[in-house]
Inverse folding.
């Protein structure tokens, strides 16, 4: 395709006619996924194939040919091919380029990863002494905030929001994501000492996208040393780190799946196999701490001390 550039993230090479906020790949690299600008007529036919839909702010439909239609009403819509190798996109009236790339390279690209047999997690990953430590937990539990606190302590970000893992030579490897953090403005100001951009991730949502550059973002894959499951934040709970039994760790990894919209049996079989393998090779811990910015120094101390005591993933 002419007029496209190559980009690299989550272990994939993307060919895109629009600029993306991730590192460039070789211009001659064979793309795993091609981004294609779709027309209004093409998406009208897609919606007709999808059948009647309620006017909710988010829509997702699996079509008869195995492709997936995804839409954030009045912002943007996408069509992901059954094999995940083509993503057609269209920006709508309220969508911005910034918000389009955030959702394209997160929720939408996760369908391509699933089609390729990878089951991404919802979390944040930072690098500590050349190895990766990951944080997973429910929305609002503070994964990105903790990532920002560790970044302020000199631990660069590997991935935020979508975490892509792959198995290599008996280890689990984290492939770098987009060099960014999604943070509330006051958190960005307090922890990183810089004002957050004015533009929201999506209309009505409080978080902003904080772009990161070397040395604050990692550009090479790293072995996963440990995975921390964040407990529900409580105002006055002590900072604790405790290992999880294999069965509980398995459940938490399944719960941390990034994409909850694909329900085929093959996906669940792959997901369970993935979680079983991660539990067998990676220490999984539960991290409990009070939800207060003032407690983050103690939380970082506890995490870094615990990770240092674990065997090297390398």
């Amino acid at each position: 395709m002419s007029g496209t550039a190559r980009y690299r993230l989550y272990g994939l090479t993307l060919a895109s006619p629009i600029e993306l906020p991730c590192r460039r790949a070789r211009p001659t690299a064979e793309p795993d996924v091609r981004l294609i600008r779709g027309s209004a007529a093409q998406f009208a036919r897609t919606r007709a194939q999808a059948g009647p839909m309620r006017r909710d702010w988010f829509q997702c439909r699996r079509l008869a040919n195995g492709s997936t239609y995804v839409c954030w009403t009045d912002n943007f819509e996408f069509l992901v091919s059954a094999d995940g190798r083509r993503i057609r996109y269209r920006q709508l009236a309220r969508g911005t380029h910034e918000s389009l790339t955030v959702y394209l390279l997160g929720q939408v690209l996760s369908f391509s990863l699933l089609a390729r047999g990878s089951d991404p997690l919802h979390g944040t990953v930072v690098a500590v002494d050349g190895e990766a430590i990951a944080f997973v937990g429910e929305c609002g539990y503070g994964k990105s905030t903790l990532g920002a606190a560790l970044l302020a302590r000199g631990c660069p970000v590997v991935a935020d929001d979508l975490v892509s893992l792959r198995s290599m030579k008996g280890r689990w490897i984290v492939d770098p994501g987009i060099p960014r953090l999604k943070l509330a403005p006051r958190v960005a100001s307090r922890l990183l000492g810089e004002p957050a951009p004015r533009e929201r991730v999506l209309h009505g949502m409080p978080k902003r996208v904080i772009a990161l550059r070397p040395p604050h973002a990692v550009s090479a894959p790293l072995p996963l040393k440990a995975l921390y499951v964040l407990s529900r934040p409580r105002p006055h709970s002590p900072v604790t780190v405790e290992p999880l039994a294999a069965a509980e760790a398995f459940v938490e990894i399944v719960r941390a799946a990034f994409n909850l919209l694909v329900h085929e049996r093959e996906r669940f079989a792959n997901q369970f196999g993935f979680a079983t393998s991660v539990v067998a090779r990676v220490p999984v811990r539960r991290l409990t701490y009070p939800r207060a910015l003032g407690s983050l120094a103690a939380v970082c101390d506890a995490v870094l001390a615990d990770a240092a005591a674990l065997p090297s993933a390398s």
Observations:
- The longest helix spans residues 97-115.
